[in-house]
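TA notes, week 10

Several of you asked for a full example with nothing omitted. So below is the full record: structure tokens for the whole chain, then the designed sequence directly under it. When grading your own attempts, check the secondary structure regions first.
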């Protein structure tokens, strides 16, 4: 199964971002006849996972995981299946990742308190901490660099299924507002000239190529919902995110399902609301819920930030002791990266480079054991 995982390229790792389209990707699958409501499509998408026990839901309390959990609970009770099991990470010393109040509201509203499993993490989820090392040793470098976040949840779901909210940030959110007046365009140009370099650790030519590719991708983003869904489903970033989770899950006999990326849901959403131009996340969630879900599920909330969960002691020790090896010197300016890594916290855009350096050191270690096989 590991042979089927699309790997980040040297440029992906150096840039810290995966750009471009997957030539094998496709847009939402078409459906003959009248389009079903998106809510019905989501209910159908979660059903195969609910039929495997245990069915876990990676639940952060954010909008996407809350929507998936609410729909899974609704379908399970209607079909006489066991309730889904929400699994939540709680983090120490990571206040920006704090979502406990919303988590408690959602769990209470859905009456899932008895099933709720809470995992605790301090430095455990560092980019090269104990959980990440297990994943990196088994699979090598994956995208995204925080893929190890799901490894303990996948292990809990062994023999069953895992539902996630992956895809929500792309399918339901993320439009950049782009007014078309000349004054607005001039203002954006002036702002861009004052912006700091998003890739200060790259060599000059690599940095120019990265900035050019990033601007091209931003310009290519469609404004109408149907076209934007199709575009995102073809992006390498989302393809790699989905397939890396599927591969890790399959190695543990787990069916990984991301309903927000299912053919049925994306086709239904495009058919029902595809003509909308730059709709807000709240507008789409309200339309999807269609008054059938508790209002708290789609209520607006602050989006948590997780950088401080992954940038902990092990990463700090690695960057402080870094000798300049383990990166592609044709793309990365070692001196510039050393400057970036001399301040804490480091730029999260260098997360993949941190893991690349760790893996290079592992492969160079004498007496390296064989990579562990899936258990």
């Amino acid at each position: 199964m590991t042979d089927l995982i699309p790997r980040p390229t040297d440029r992906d790792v150096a840039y810290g971002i995966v750009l471009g389209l997957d030539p094998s990707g496709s847009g939402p699958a078409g459906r003959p006849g009248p389009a079903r409501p998106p809510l019905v499509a989501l209910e159908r998408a979660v059903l195969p996972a609910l039929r495997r026990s245990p069915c876990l839901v990676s639940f952060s309390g954010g909008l996407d995981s809350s929507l998936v959990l609410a729909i899974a609970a609704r379908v399970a009770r209607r079909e006489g299946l066991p309730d889904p099991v929400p699994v939540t990470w709680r983090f120490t010393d990571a206040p920006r990742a704090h979502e406990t109040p919303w988590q408690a509201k959602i769990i209470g509203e859905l009456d899932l308190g008895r099933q709720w499993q809470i995992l605790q993490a301090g430095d455990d989820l560092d980019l090269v901490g104990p959980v990440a090392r297990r994943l990196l040793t088994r699979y090598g470098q994956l995208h995204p660099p925080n893929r190890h976040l799901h490894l303990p949840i996948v292990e809990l779901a062994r023999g069953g299924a895992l539902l996630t909210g992956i895809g929500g940030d792309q399918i339901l959110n993320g439009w950049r507002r782009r007014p078309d007046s000349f004054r607005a365009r001039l203002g954006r140009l002036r702002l861009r000239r004052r912006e700091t370099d998003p890739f200060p650790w790259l060599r000059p030519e690599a940095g120019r190529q990265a900035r050019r590719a990033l601007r091209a991708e931003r310009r290519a983003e469609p404004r109408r919902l149907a076209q934007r869904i199709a575009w995102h489903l073809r992006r390498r970033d989302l393809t790699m995110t989905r397939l890396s989770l599927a591969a890790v899950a399959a190695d543990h006999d787990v069916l990984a399902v991301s309903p927000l990326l299912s053919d049925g849901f994306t086709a239904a959403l495009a058919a029902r609301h595809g003509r909308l131009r730059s709709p807000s996340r709240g507008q789409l969630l309200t339309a999807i819920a269609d008054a059938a879900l508790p209002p708290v599920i789609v209520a607006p909330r602050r989006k948590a930030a997780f950088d401080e969960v992954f940038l902990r002691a092990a990463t700090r020790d690695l960057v402080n002791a870094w000798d300049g090896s383990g990166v592609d010197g044709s793309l990365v300016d070692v001196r510039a990266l050393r400057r970036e890594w001399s301040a804490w916290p480091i730029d999260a855009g260098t997360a993949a480079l941190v893991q690349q350096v760790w893996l290079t050191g592992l492969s160079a270690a004498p007496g390296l054991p064989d990579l562990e096989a899936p258990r």
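The chain has one domain: 2-176+205-310. Use that as a sanity check on your answer.
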